[in-house]
Amino acid sequence: MAAHAKVRRVVTSVLSLLLVLTAALFAGPARQARAADGWWNPTARPAPDSQINVTGEPFRGTDSAGKVRGFVDAHNHLMSAEGFGGRIICGSVFSTKGVADALKDCPEHYPDGALALFENVTGGADGHHDPVGWPTFKDWPAHDSLSHQQNYYAWVERAWRGGQRVLVNDLVTNGLLCSIYPYKDRGCDEMDAIRLEARKSYELQDYVDTMYGGPGKGWFRIVTDSAQARDVVAQGKLAVVLGVETSEPFGCKMILDVPQCDEDAIDRGLDELYRLGVRSMFLCHKFDNALCGVRFDEGTIGVAVNAGQFLSTGTFWQTEKCTGPQHDNPIGLPTAQANAMLPAGVTVPSYAGDAQCNTRGLTRLGEYAVRGMMQRHMMLEVDHMSVKAADRAFDILETSNYPGVISSHSWMDLQWTERLYRLGGFIAQYDHSAEGFVAEAARTKALRDKYGVGYGYGTDLNGVGGWPGPVGADAPNAVKYPFRSADGGSVIDRQVTGQRTWDVNTDGVAHDGMVPDWIEQIRLSGGQGVIDDLMHGAESYLTTWKATERHDAGTDLARGASASASSSEWNLFTSYRPDRAVDGDRGSRWASDWNDDQWWQVDLGAVRRIDRVTLDWERAYGKGYRIEVSTDGANWRTVWSTDSGNGGLDTARFDPANARWVRVHGAQRGTQWGYSLYEVGVYGT
C-alpha cells in the first residue's frame, strides 16, 4: 500500500506537465551466414530479426543530368532513446544482443503499462498497453504511440531500400523533461546526451558494417561533407547527416533573463559539434534561451509548454503585436492542468489575441552563434525560431548571401518560403497525412519550379509528434500490396517483424519502415508530380550543403576605408564619426544630426565593380533612403532605393555598377532621431 501511495504521488506531481509539454517536443546473437545475393543484402544478418520485405536492387548512380536521385528525410531522431534521461523513448535502434533486446519496453511499463506515464499522458494508450515488443508487438510501435522505438535499424533499412538516400539524424534531448520525469538511468545535461547520441550513431554504422563484411561496406554511411554524401548516394547507399535539436545548446539557457553561457562557450560548443560530425543545428527549441526566442506552440499545448518555459527559465513567454504578416502561434487560455505544474501562487498568464509574436528575437549571443555557424560552414535550422529571431537570422544570412538555411519539418512561418529559396536553402514538410502533405506541396509548387528545387519530408520519428493514422483498406488512396518503389526497380510488400505484419492502410505510419508505403499513398493521393519533386529532394539538399561549404561572403571593400558624412552627432563621451561605420566593430557607430536630409559616404580608393551594400542600423534607422554611387565624387546616380525601411539589417542588391564612392542618402527618418549605422559593407561582383 505504501509503495502504491508513493507511486500515486509521483504520478500526480508529473502528470500535468507531461500531458502536453512532451507531446510538443520532439558478443552478439547467433548469426545466419550465407552468400550475398546482391551488394545490398548482407552476408550475415542477426537471427532472428525483422524482415525487410523489399526485393530488387536499390537504385544507384545519377540521372542523365548527373544529379543524384532519391528522397531525403530531413528531420529524424534515430537516437532519442539515449536522451531525456534514457527512459522516455523505450527500445533501441539496435543491440548487439539481438532484436529481442533492442525492441523491448521500458522496465516500468511492465506488466500492463499502468506506470508508463509518458505513454499514457500523450495519448498512445488509455492507461494500459501490452509492453511486449518482440515478437508479438501487439500495441507498439504505433502511429500514436509516442514513447516506443520507431527507428529500429531494419526499419531504417526498409526506408532506404524504398528510395530514401539522405537522412538527417537530429541528436535531441530536453533537460527539463528529463529532470521532471521520475524514471531515468542517466543525467540530464543536454550536451552529455548529444555526445552519447553521436557516439551511438557511429556505433550503429559499425553494427551495419559488420553484416556486410567490415568497415565502410554497409549501407548506413555517416557523412561530413557534401561530396562524400554524393559519393554514398551514387553507390545507392544512405548518406546520414548529423544535426542537433535541443533547448540548451552549449549550456546556453536563460535563467531570469541572465544568459548562462558566453561567446567562448559558443565557440567551444560549435567546435566540439563540428568534430563530432554535426553539420546542421537549431539554436533554440521549445523554450527561450540565451540565443533566441522560440516560435510558440499553439493552444493548450502552448499553455503547457509555457509552464515548462517558466520552470526552465524562471520567466513566461512575453508577446507583442507582430510588425509584419508573419506571426508565432497563438497561445491558448490558461488551464488548471498547466497551473498545477507551477509553484503555489504562480499562474500561467493570459495573452491578447492580437499579440501573437514573441518579444524575444535573436540575442547578441544568438547573432554570435549564427555568425559562428557561418564561419564553420554549418547549416542553420530556423523552424523553432520566433519570427523575430528568424527575421534577424535571415537578415544576417542575406548580408553574406549565405545559402545554409533549412526548414525541415513545417515549423517556419510559411511566408518566409521564398526568402529561404532565394538564399539557396532547403525545405521539407512534416510527415503529415498523405492528403495534407499533397495539399501543402501543391501550395508551394510554383516556388519550387521557380527556383528549380526539389522537396523533402521530415518524419520526426522518435520525436514525440504523432504520425499519419490509418485511412482504411477501402479508402481511395489505399495502398495495394505489393507495389513498385518510386523508381520502379524494387517490389515492396507488407512489412513483417516477428509475428506482426504492418499495413499502412490499417496501421498508418507506425515506424520508419512504413515510409515507402506512405510515399506510395502520397502518389495515389496527388499523382506522380509530387513524387518527382520528392525524388529530386536529395539533390536539392546536397546542393544547399555544397553551396554552404563553398560559401565566400566576399571582401568588404568598405572595411577601414575613408568615410565622410553630412553631419555627425556630437556627444561629450562618445564619438559618432563617419569612420565608425567601417571599423568592423558593432560596438561603435556613426550617427547624424536629427533631420531628414543626411548622408554618409565611403571612398573605396579606386573604381570597383559593386553589386551589394549591407547596412546594420542602430535604432535610429532610415525609413526612406537611397544608395548612390559615383566614379568621380561629384556626379552621383541612384542604384537602389526604398521608402519602407524598417531598420535592423538591410541588404541592397542592384545591377553591377562601377563606383569609387558609395553614399547612403537619407530622405526620411524612421524615428525622431537622425540616422545611425553600426556598420556599412560594400561588396563587388
Notes on the structure:
The protein has about 675 residues and is of the alpha/beta class. It is about 30% helix and about 20% strand. Strands 4, 5, 6, 7, 10, 13, 14, 15 and 16 form a 9-stranded parallel β-sheet that branches. Strands 21, 22, 23, 24, 25, 26 and 27 form a 7-stranded antiparallel β-sheet that branches. A 3-stranded antiparallel β-sheet has the order 3-18-17. Helix 12 links the parallel strand 13 and strand 14. Helix 8 packs parallel to helix 11 and helix 14 crosses helix 17. The protein is globular. It starts with a helix and ends with a strand. The N terminus is likely disordered.
Overall pLDDT score: 93
Largest sheet: 9 strands, parallel
Please report which band the strand proportion falls in: under 5%, 5-15%, 15-25%, 25-35%, 35-45% or over 45%. 15-25%
Per DSSP E runs of 2 or more residues, the count of β-strands stands at: 27
Please bin the fraction of helical residues: 25-40%
Number of helices: 19
Gross geometry:
globular
Radius of gyration: 27 Å
What class would the helix/strand composition place it in? alpha/beta
